[in-house]
Amino acid sequence: MADSNETRRWQYLDQIRRNPGPFNQDSDVSEEALQALGQHKVLVIGAGGLGCEILKNLALSGFKNIDVIDMDTIDISNLNRQFLFRKDDVGKYKAEVAAAFVEKRVKGIKITPHNCRIQDFDEDFYKQFQLVVCGLDSIEARRWINATLVNMVDMDDSDSLKPLIDGGTEGFKGQTRVIIPTLTPCIECQLDLYTPRAAVPLCTLATIPRQPEHCIEWAHIIAWDQEKPFPDLDKDDPEHITWLYQKASARAQEFGITGVTYSLTQGVVKNIIPAIASTNAIIAASCCNEALKIATTIAPSLGLEESYMMYSGDDSIYTSTFKYDRKPDCPVCGGAAKPLAVDPGITLRELLDSFAVKPDMQLKKPSIRANNKTLYMQFPPSIEAQTRPNLDKTLKTDLGLDTGHEIAVTDPAFPTITFNFILSFTST
Ligand SMILES: [Zn+2]
Questions:
Q1: Residue 333 domain-assigned?
Q2: 345 lies in which domain range?
Q3: 350 is a domain residue
Q4: Is residue 56 situated within a structural domain?
Q5: pLDDT digits (tens, 9 = 90+) for 52-75
Q6: What is the pLDDT of residues 138-188, one digit of tens each?
Q7: Does residue 328 lie within any of the structural domains?
Q8: CA 88, 92, 96: angle at the middle one, nearest 5?
Q9: Residue 407 Cα, ligand 1 centroid: separation in angstroms?
Q10: Catalytic one among 203, 215, 288, 333?
């Protein structure tokens, strides 16, 4: 009886999978092939707004073996859209609560939660999955997992190719994209589609703030470090946010800037992006349909030709799916050096600051080498101190750089990426 219930439960999904399609023309899909979906190991990154939807959809699409990573705990403000959580869950780990909820609801499914950062795992961990689905609100985390999956590709081993399905939303807008590492454009190739919102050059923060966000970032990055009011910043501790809010308000007043509020402070510090439940549902649904198509080959998925679906709901509704080309000079999947046009009279510090706002870089802590010589390194402290005097030197006259020189830039947030450039001075 239990078995027949189980069969009936999935009868509509199985019917779709048995229907003839571009990839199964004889419609002869065996029971074994239908069962294979249950063995497919999927990793979900993020158990928040998108993550709750993704876990629910994957479970109800027949996936049975899922891991989920999220380092966050549940906040009361999550409850309006993160529907796997209840008031009693506030303070508990999102991954753990979400996994337990879906396991209870969909019998026979195994969801393994990991309450940590994606960076806490190495390639051996990521190797065990056939598919990765991301529901993240952080560009940095996306770039990290993208670089990791591209690096893992071994051309002689097709199992090393892990398709990455990435969903993202902001208010009424969203996107779904499928990355097949080394074969389709990767996230780094498409980085310039996102304007860097959080990355403000340090010199702007330190000297002339123009927006309330600049004052908050100043309090967050500079004042906190100098004054260390508490040992470690806890972004969920109201006392810590209040300290930052007061610092930012004082600075805003000094520069005649209005608009610094407690909730803006919290939003900037936690990098909170406006979230609407229905946009999350739309994007998560399209991510999971692509996951089902990739895992079962019942229909062609995104990624093979067109790889990017954008959804825009803030001016009526518009959606479009397009092909985005791989970049031969992508620092992750390309490797060719890019030309870097700069004024030879600027200082090394100005050059490094420009990497924060350059849409295809967005680096907060860049280190730089030129012609294999270290010009500035953020770590370790001894090398930082040794190379710090270079920051105020000009590129051409003081440091002796010239057009045609090779520059290599790295950042601790992305340990596997090196940005290679060929220097090109704009004037002499
Ligand atoms: Zn790329």
A1: no
A2: 338-425
A3: yes
A4: yes
A5: 999 999 999 999 999 999 999 998
A6: 888 999 999 999 999 998 998 999 999 999 998 899 999 999 999 999 999
A7: no
A8: 110
A9: 19
A10: 203
